[in-house]
Amino acid sequence: MILERSESQPISGDELSRFFEECQYTAFRLETLQVYDVGYEEEAFRRFLADGAVVTSRSHEEWARWVGSGRQFRRVHVVAEPLTDYVRFECAWAYRSSVEAGEDVNILPVAEGEWPQGIPRFDYWLFDSHQLVRMNYAPDGSMLTPDLVTDPQQIVQANVIRDRALHLAIPFTEYEKRFDADMRSL
């Protein structure tokens, strides 16, 4: 099975932050959820739904600092179309500013009910191709716990999944051309 939950241990948010500070070369994120419930985004998401406003927050500034640190940050988000309100918000609010800061954001679009072969239905971070953190979420998209995966075979598998996802995905800058200016509709 792809990236089993065995041979892993829960880590704290502070420990996860340390991986970002200590990675030397690369950080890769696979995102698979269509809705995330992240507390620091709540007000920005509410405003986006109300009037399309896109606001910058302290979390954007911190992320820009990490991304602009000379290391390579890459991401693939598997998105089901039609997009959820949250994914539209994420594209308009987070991805545009992440790309401006230097992150390589990619989108792997799929039709609703379909899923790309060889790509798991869960999220992870892979730091410097050898430190793997599986991100565990509740069904509503709220974070449960990140788990540090120590099994070498699963770490190798995460690298293979990363390569496949990047091969199948398109750059966010190309994907967003399909939308109107505020990501309201295709």
Structure notes:
By secondary structure, this protein is an alpha+beta fold. The protein has a single domain, classed as Endonuclease Chain A (Endonuclease, Chain A, 2-Layer Sandwich). 37% of the residues lie in helices and 26% in strands. It is built from six helices and eight strands; from the N terminus they run βαβααβαββββαβα. It has an eight-stranded mixed sheet with strand order 1-7-6-5-2-3-4-8, with helices on both faces. Strand 5 and strand 6 form a beta hairpin. Helix 3 crosses helix 4. The longest helix is centred in the middle third of the chain and has 17 residues. The protein is globular, with a radius of gyration of 16 Å. The termini are far apart.
